[in-house]
Amino acid sequence: MASNVNPTVRRRRLGQELRRLRELKGMTAEEVAERLLVSQSKISRLENGRRSISQRDVRDLCGVYEVEDHRIVDSLMQMAKDSRQQGWWHAFGDIPYSVYIGLETEAASLRIYESLLVPGLLQTPGYAEAVIPGTVPELASDHLEKRIQVRMRRQERVTDPERPLRLWVVLDESALRRVVGSHLIMREQLDHLVEMSQLPHVTVQVLPYDTGAHAGMSGTFSILEFDDAADSSVVYIEGVTSDLYLEKTNDVHKYTIMYEHLRAQALSAEHSREFIAAAAKSHADAMG
């Protein structure tokens, strides 16, 4: 697969264009489904980029929308072809959050609020090896190893010398205090967190316990933004059985405001590093 082809993003862009064509035609998803003798849910999944789309689907939809410009049809057909290729993550088998990985791989910036654990992009191998089976207790050992490998591979975006991911993390103090694996693992993890926070494109802020009530108490979330104007921002909320992707402008705006409040309530980047270093020392002291 060409390195500049991201199937997840291609599906998303294609779905947005197909939705635009439908709306220009003044048709509802239900009307399109009736014309093609398919379910309305299929049309919705094609438009939100959560379902693989074939060139035949594109051809049929362009017929319904009476698209006469062959250049547009050819472009959409090529996007459909690209969207069916495989990203690097497919080599690891069935990864439940593969859609998110595809978006993360293409994102220019990522803002994360995490309340209970260190985000995957900043985890050490030891921490990942301890936290993954803790959060997914029935995960088979071979699947655990794949999850760890994928997590470490994802981190390459943060340190990519040509196109590093702009990463901003607001972290609740509980993620620093909870002993995942052992005090040694935690000390190494927090030392790594301090080191990563010194990169010019990585910011880590801590919300201490004494902050009190704050905007993130309703749950963790991430906001992904992209360089291409055609790709709208996405709010990602991870679930146990399914994940939620919010793309409507109003939804993204609300979460963006929440994140601004979290950043304002958290310690500064410099004070956060000092706070994390002190927490690392407390784990070292606990080792005896």
Automatic annotation (TrEMBL):
SUPFAM superfamilies documented for this protein: lambda repressor-like DNA-binding domains
Domain HTH cro/C1-type: from-to ranges: 18-73
Gene Ontology terms for molecular function: DNA binding
Matching InterPro entries: Cro/C1-type_HTH, DUF5753, Lambda_DNA-bd_dom_sf
Top-rank lineage group of the source organism: Bacteria
A family per Pfam: DUF5753
Name listed for the protein in its UniProt record: Putative transcriptional regulator
